[in-house]
Amino acid sequence: MHPFSFTKAANTRDALDAGQRGGRYIAGGTTLVDLMRETVERPDALVDITALPLREITVTKTGGLRLGALVSMSQAAAHPAVHPVISQALELSASAQLRNMATLGGNIMQRTRCTYFRDVTAACNKRSPGSGCAALGGYNRAHAILGGSEQCVATHPSDLAVACTALEVTVHLLGPTGSRTLPFTDFLLRPGTTPDREQALRPGELITAVEVPAYPRTLKSGYLKVRDRQSYEFALTSAAVALNVRGGVVREAKVAAGGVGTVPWKLSIVEHFLLGKQPSEQLWSDAAARAADGAQPLAHNGFKVELLKRTVERQLRGVGGAA
After folding, report:
1. Which domains are delineated in the chain?
2. Farthest CA pair distance, the chain
């Protein structure tokens, strides 16, 4: 581990000042500390933000739900107002000990589990821009089939982020020039030609909260994660589904996939196909058949195309049932 300075911010102003000077924000630290230990990340300064007042879960005036960035994963998962798709994504994310430490802000900021990214001897444009992407010609079973580029095909690891993508969550940010909000789908960036830039954060900006929009009480949701083993493993595929079925037809559909994209993948084509139709086994099958549209499998992960379709179909059936 390389030498670094450590300060504890007493308030938001202190944190922003330190962030402007290049300090890296840390709270639970469950990902960043690991990366520092492996010398993948080498920050010169860390800023402890655990004293900031960002731990509340509140219902907004419009009926949505605002979750502070320092709310722990376990606290959010246990809250009665949190949608099941979020609770289930959090509970399937890590061990109980990690969920007690890790924060929501840190969870959506976590970096890829690509083995080449974490191996400092391997070529990785995400870790060292311009060095190449070892995964393209290497063993790429766990890598992305959607959203990749010639620079990077690493998947985003967060289960919470898949649920946030499905529910069209808003990210609240605070920086030196004030506060702003971003749709979640704009917050996480596809690799393109700059795979080292993973979030749309400006220098010194801090995540203060994520906000789930208001949905009708009739909305049903859930999260399904398919992985090589049942405990402490990242997704090969996953599906976050939220459906509002009223009057015998699908009135609202929110669907996203994980484990298959360089960012959590919003399945808009599946959503649009479902709207206005009566729930049935055939509907779920026909909608899920579109889940992998545009996929570009690599040498070792072609199985993800069919696995994604089956995962989405299973979760649509589980959440929506049949007429």
Report:
1. 220-320 (3.30.390.50)
2. 62
Q: In sequence order, what are the beta bridge partners of 171?
A: 182, 210
Q: Looking at residue 82, what DSSP letter applies?
A: S
pLDDT in tens, the chain (323 residues): 788 999 999 999 999 999 999 999 999 888 899 999 999 999 999 999 999 999 999 999 999 999 999 999 999 999 999 999 999 999 999 888 989 999 999 999 999 999 999 999 999 999 999 999 999 999 999 999 999 999 999 999 999 999 999 999 999 999 999 999 999 999 999 999 999 999 999 999 999 999 999 999 999 999 999 999 888 789 999 999 999 999 999 999 999 999 999 999 999 999 999 999 999 999 999 999 999 999 999 999 999 999 999 999 999 999 998 75
Cα dihedral 306, 307, 312, 313 sign: positive
Structure token digits, residue 279: 């729930």
Backbone torsion region of residue 192, taken as left when φ is above 0, otherwise alpha when ψ lies between -120 and 50, otherwise beta: left
pTM of the model: 0.96
Cα 250 from chain centre: 26
**Helices 159-166 and 84-91 sit at what angle, rounded to 10 degrees?**
170
Contact 154, 114 (CB under 8 A): yes
**Pairing relation of β-strands 45-48 and 5-8?**
parallel
Beta bridge partners of 211: 66, 170
Backbone angles phi, psi at 291, to 5 degrees: -65, -30
Cβ proximity of 248 and 323 under 8 Å: yes
- Quick one: which of 303, 302, 308 has its CA closest to 290? 308
- The span from the first CA to the last CA of the chain, in angstroms, equals 58
Which of 315, 78, 83, 312 lies closest to 213, judged by CA?
A: 83
CA proximity to 51, closest of 12, 6, 97: 12
Strands 24-26 and 45-48: parallel
